[in-house]
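Form 12-C: Joint structure prediction
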Amino acid sequence: MKQITTVREMQQTVDLIRREGRTIGIVPTMGYLHEGHLSLIREAKRNADITVTTIFVNPAQFAPGEDYQRYPRDFNRDIKLVDSAGSDFLFAPTVEEMYPSSFSTYVEVGRITGILEGKFRPAHFRGVTTIVAKLFNTIKPHVAVFGQKDAQQVIVIRQMVHDLNHDIRIIVAPIVREADGLAMSSRNTYLSPEQRKESATIYKSLKRGEQMINEGERNCARIIAEISSYLTSQPSLKIDYVSVADADSLEEYTVIKENSRILISLAVRVGATRLIDNIIVTL
Amino acid sequence: MKQITTVREMQQTVDLIRREGRTIGIVPTMGYLHEGHLSLIREAKRNADITVTTIFVNPAQFAPGEDYQRYPRDFNRDIKLVDSAGSDFLFAPTVEEMYPSSFSTYVEVGRITGILEGKFRPAHFRGVTTIVAKLFNTIKPHVAVFGQKDAQQVIVIRQMVHDLNHDIRIIVAPIVREADGLAMSSRNTYLSPEQRKESATIYKSLKRGEQMINEGERNCARIIAEISSYLTSQPSLKIDYVSVADADSLEEYTVIKENSRILISLAVRVGATRLIDNIIVTL
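Section 2 - Result
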């Protein structure tokens, strides 16, 4: 596996790969990799000739007071994991490389960025779409793989790709979970043993919501109330939101429509740690 | 010359060209072409193997009340001109192709878009950078040619290209002028014979500013006052701004620095028509 740290070298490298008629897959990450990330790399390898994994903790998607400074980092461990998953390249630029002091351009998706995560993290998606556009222009991929864990991020990036005419196919890989159902996340490392134990309820609450829908419940308020009561049964968990919405448009339902794909998504705070999770129910 | 109207066909076409190792140059225009545009096409041909000229009157860069609806259009004449200038492709999408009803993503350059043109046309540059990003992603050019007539636009696009890591070389072609010095513009067609005659003073005022600098004047207020008095000597001309600034950063001078490139730029209204022009003085 080859490591690259500058935009210039990355662009020259992918130009050669494209000239040879080979396809490129990109897996953008913020590092501190877990099995979820590695599943994205394997998915990219199935869908492209050459895989480029990126590691960059993107300051633009953190608000002041969020966990940018303390976000977990272990670059040496990450290198080994990316290599072992079979990535051909690791692109890991510095903050100065991606955001020189003169930087002043942002890519911003409207509408769907104002709800759910966007409501609690107002500048978050602007940071995400800006860095993803930069990575797309740097690595010029044919396909890009993102995790379903960040469900709204996937929808926002699809919108950006569609609106700005990025000639890139977006692939979404399923959530990878711990044995007790907790969605894998670099932020799980923040949790105390007690918080970690209580966090298993997050997935149980989503499964309970899925079960209600499968058993015929169509009233979203009742589903949200049931999920919320699961979550608040755990002393450590504070709810930011629980949402039942159309899985493609994020339009929130009052009554679930038949023949739809439903995204149940939520965010909770566990002490100082903020966790998100979701499940899709297809009717 | 081949005409293309969809993003999809354009992307497939340029992918084949790139695979053959040939370079692509793009000339984005809003049509109603004049000799200035044709000089851009010729410049693209000198710098790339294949030239794509685009014609699209971009609604996103016009504010309500501006001249989007009445902007001059003559597509059949344009086709012949683009062909005669030697462009290999003409990309002319519909508004629906570029801005489907779900469209909600914008590319926005900060700081330098808040002054000069951006002050008088607040959403203008957001519209410009968004459509240019879309055209870049559609045509995937190696080089892009813009006219120096839109001096601030060139600086804004350079900033976007730098910030978003577009792997594209920006080429700026000189202003093409009528015999009496008026900068060629599709909007000159709006002018009455009397207005057209008075508009020749615009370039004369810029040349006077250049002369003052070359003769040693360094006080910007005096230069601006002199240019303004030239302009207001014509009954039809109303000044939006006259600026003396650094040609790269657009930082406005009080006193001109030695060894600098100075952009003298202005915007005037001639009746309902808004015209811009500029000159660069190198010390």
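Section 3 - Comments
The CA atoms of residues 265 and 277 of chain A lie 6 Å apart. Chain A touches chain B at residues 7, 11, 15, 18-19, 21, 102-112, 129-130, 133-134, 137-138, 140, 159-160, 162-167 (CB under 8 Å).
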